[in-house]
Structure formats: C-alpha cells, structure tokens
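During data preparation, a discrete fold description was generated, as reproduced here:
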Amino acid sequence: MPQPKVSIIIVSWNSARYLPSCLKNLSVQTFKNFEIIIVDNGSKDNCAKGLEDIYPNLDLKVKHLPSNLGFATANNIGARLAKGHWLALLNADAFPEPDWLDKLLQAVKNYPQFSCFSSRQIQANNPNFLDGAGDAYHVSGMAWRIGIGYPSEQYGRKFEEIFSPCAAAAMYSREAFLEVGGFDEDYFSYFEDVDLGFRLQLKENRCLYVPSATVCHVGSATFGERSDFAFYHAHRNLIWTFVKNMPSALLWRYLPSHIVANLIYIVYYMFRGRGKILWKAKKDAIRGLSKAIQKRRKIQAQRKITDRELLKVMKRGWLQPYLLGYRLRRILNAKSQKA
C-alpha cells in the first residue's frame, strides 16, 4: 500500500449509533489516498468490534484502549500511529460530504501559508443551521464556536483566517501537530482544540476556515449538550489555556478581563443552579496552576509569533463574549420576520 497522504483519526466511545454512518460517508470520499485510525476509548457497546472486516474497502485500523483515557490522549495516540502527512480529526458523530477531503486538500494547495484547516459544520438534526465555522478566541480567555446556531444558507460561506479549528472536523499538518506536542492530555476533553490552536499560533501555524469542506455534526453525542461533564472541563481548561499560552505582555494586560469574565460567569450560573459545578471547575483550575506555569515556560520559550500578529487573530471587543446570545437572537428574529 502506498503511504497515505491523509490519516483520519476517529476517537470512539460508545459510538455504535453513529460510527457506521461516519464510516459509510468516508467510504465514498472522492479523494481516496487516506487511512482511517479508530481509537476506541474503552467502549462498552462493541462499536469498534470487527470493523476491519465490515469495511474491507477502507484502509482501516482500530486501536483498542482499556478505558476512556479522554479525547486528548486518544487523539495523540492516533497521531503517533498515523502515517499521513496530514491528520484529519473527525468525530464519530460527524458525517462528511463526499468531497470533504478533496476540498480540504484543495485549500492546502491554494493557501500554502496555512498549516491547519477547519471544516464547515452543519447541524445534522437541523441542517438549516450551522454547528460552527471554527473557533474564536477572545483576549479575556473565553472562546466560542463561530456561527453556531446561525442560518446555514447565509453564514459561514467565506474562506477566512480564524484562531483555531474545531477538532470535530479539522485537519492539521502532522509535523506541526507533533512539534507542539499534540493535545494537552491533562485536559481530558473540551477546550483542548482551542489550547492546541493557541500553541500552533505561537509557532506561526496559521488556521484557515474552509467553507466548502462540509460535515453534518450531531454534536454533544457523547456526554449530552451542556452536561455537567462538559461544563466542568470547559471552564477548568479555559483558565489553563490562558495561563499557559498568553504571552507575558498580553497576559498582564488582559488578566483583569480574564478574572472579571470568570467572576461574571460564576455569578450568572449560580442563579441558574450550576454554581456548584462551576466553583469546582475554577478551584481545580487553580490547584493545577503550578503545573500549567511549568508548561508555560517551555511554550513561551519556543514562541515565534509577535504580540501584534497574535492579536490580529483574537477577538478584542470588551462585551463580545457576553453578547453572543443577544446577537444570535436578533439574527433569528430577523429571519423569522422575513419568513
């Protein structure tokens, strides 16, 4: 077999409901020179059993892990097993269009200055709406999926440089991915793709959103939408991401806004019955700061990008993180009035 150009890594955990559809869509890709590495995170539903025999037309390998080691660790294991020049990460509940890989590789050819690429995600259960157009990062340390919930026929249609790919459907240069150490395995899951994107940015690895590379994504299929598990890990990990990666001058400049943002969310969610889990996330983040600071020393010592260049791909509006829901409601209201 020739060396594959792309290695598709799928982390599976009790994904029997979705994995067959994902693999079916991969089997009809117009670009054929790829391998699939499924890293099974100790599933109990036999979702990865016998897949090599079920899909003999695919160059497919399964790595079984004894337990759920987390999304970050499982993807790193897949990356070390991969042979392709490009790593395409795909969630088990993400179903790519037949030309998905073709469009990503066309972007590689047309935009050689970029080394990571984010796909256009459509909500699988409601295709009239986006599930995201890559990830945005705010100077306060908050991050969000661009365009989530926006009407898909109007938004997410343009190529644009963004901060980082959403790892549900992303492609990275394998060399760049491994050079920065892959995902931080202390994160387990959630916010790990933003953290990776930050470290890639610091090493001058730019990210492009590719609107023609489309996947339908169920989203939150593993732990449920806004589950306590997801809520805890996202709010813990966002603090570590800010502390580890923000260059010194920017860290001190934006530390007050980082503290204020965390306090605002604590107060907000206390009145919505989620204060306890959020307090635990913040306390555990503080307990892990010494380790994060140790990582920071290495990350900052290897930084290549200037502060000015980094700020160009960050969001800086002071109220922007807090007005996302308001802006979305205005867009949806305008759409309903036109209808």
Q: What stands out?
A: Residues 248-270 form the longest helix (23 residues). The chain has a mean pLDDT of 94.
